[in-house]
């Protein structure tokens, strides 16, 4: 390979045989482990796709500057891709971003801009990040914004890459696909492939409580990487068969369950996917095959999602409460002897 951009994609599809041990669940559950990308997340795909699209169309030239809003993962992916394409990168993050993620973006040569005050009209940090992007575009001559929230190359990366790989590995025989959403590039790309190839696959979008995507009610969101405070352009083209909303407690419990059962250390959004998958399987235990997205790795979340003190201080949840929710997701009896499944 000429560089690490060429290593993006072809991630493993792993059978999860330990996550949901209930005997009545006969479904084969497969995980698309996107944390095996060189940038440790599914965002590697749209980062390369959007950057190369801009270069190929002449919107951006080597030596130019990309300014992009990111909750973290896209920032890492773009920082590396820009370095390899001789492009300067300014990443606008907010105060929720994981410290290790921000440090990684900076280490890869990017300039960091941190937004710590929400948009005064909406109270949303994402909206405030986009406003800062617009300011920087005016300040830096010749700079461009790839705008991941509306860029067709975002969804195309998942249509031509992620979903194609899953379909080829399963021979197109897949009952349900479960993925979290933020820009909705992943879910939109999956939908495009499913539709274009006539697959009979139900698409389940997992969204955060407090996100406005797909008719959601706005509210506070502490964990980065899932949901949005505004309706993204890409989401207007997406029609998932079902939307399941998950709380931050469920995201934390789902991520910890996946790590402890399957040895897959993943981020908060994947924890939400695990929780939503449990709900689907409880309702339809005789599905033949279901696939889930492991959107990113869990190392940046060690000081948050996997830290009992942080969870207690920021969410008011005890380790015992998280353990109970883990048991509920797995469908196991809780500590008080009752089965809450």
Biggest sheet, open or closed, and with what strands and sense?
6 strands, mixed
- Overall structural class, as computed from helix and strand content, comes to alpha/beta
State the order of secondary-structure elements, H for helix, E for strand.
EEHEHEHEHEHEHEEHHEHH
Count of discrete alpha- or pi-helical segments spanning 4 or more residues: 10
Estimated radius of gyration: 19 Å
Helical fraction:
25-40%
Strand line-up in the sheet with most strands: 1-2-10-7-8-9
Gross morphology is globular
Model description:
The protein is of the alpha/beta class. 39% of the residues lie in helices and 15% in strands. It contains 10 helices and 10 strands. It has helices at 44-57, 73-84, 99-107, 125-139, 152-170, 185-196, 248-262, 268-283, 308-315, 319-330, and strands spanning 13-15, 28-33, 65-69, 88-94, 111-115, 143-144, 176-180, 202-208, 242-246, 289-294. It has a 6-stranded mixed sheet with strand order 1-2-10-7-8-9, with helices on both faces. It has a 4-stranded parallel sheet with strand order 5-4-3-6, with helices on both faces. Helix 1 crosses helix 5 and helix 7 packs across helix 8. Residues 334-341 have low confidence and may be disordered.
């Amino acid at each position: 390979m000429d560089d690490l951009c060429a290593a993006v994609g072809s991630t493993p599809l792993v059978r999860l045989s330990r996550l949901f041990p209930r005997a009545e669940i006969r479904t084969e559950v497969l995980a698309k482990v996107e944390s095996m990308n060189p940038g440790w997340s599914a965002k590697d795909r749209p980062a390369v796709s959007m950057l190369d699209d801009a270069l190929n169309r002449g919107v951006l030239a080597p030596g130019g500057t990309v300014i992009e809003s990111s909750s973290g993962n896209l920032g890492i992916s773009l920082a590396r891709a820009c370095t390899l394409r001789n492009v300067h990168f300014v990443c606008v993050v907010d105060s929720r971003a994981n410290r290790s993620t921000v440090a990684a973006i900076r280490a890869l040569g990017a300039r960091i801009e941190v937004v710590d005050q929400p948009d005064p009209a909406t109270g949303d940090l994402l909206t405030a990040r986009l406003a800062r992007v617009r300011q920087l575009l005016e300040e830096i001559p010749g700079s461009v914004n790839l705008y991941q929230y509306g860029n067709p190359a975002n969804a195309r990366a998942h249509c031509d890459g992620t979903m194609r790989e899953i379909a080829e590995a399963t021979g197109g025989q897949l009952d349900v696909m479960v993925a979290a959403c933020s820009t909705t590039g992943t879910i939109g790309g999956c939908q495009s492939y499913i539709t274009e190839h006539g697959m009979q696959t139900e698409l389940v979008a997992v969204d955060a409580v407090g996100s406005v995507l797909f008719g959601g009610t706005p509210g506070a969101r502490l964990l980065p990487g899932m949901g949005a405070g505004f309706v993204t352009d890409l989401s207007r083209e997406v029609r998932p068969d079902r939307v399941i909303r998950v709380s931050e407690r469920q995201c934390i419990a789902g991520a910890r369950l996946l790590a402890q059962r399957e040895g897959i250390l993943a981020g908060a959004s994947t924890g939400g996917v695990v929780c939503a998958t449990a709900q689907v399987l409880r309702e339809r235990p005789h599905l033949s095959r279901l696939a889930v997205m492991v959107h990113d790795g869990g190392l940046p979340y060690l000081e948050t999602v996997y830290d009992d003190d942080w969870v207690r201080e920021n969410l008011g949840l005890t380790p015992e409460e998280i353990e109970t929710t883990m048991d509920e997701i797995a469908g196991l009896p809780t500590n008080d002897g009752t089965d809450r499944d």
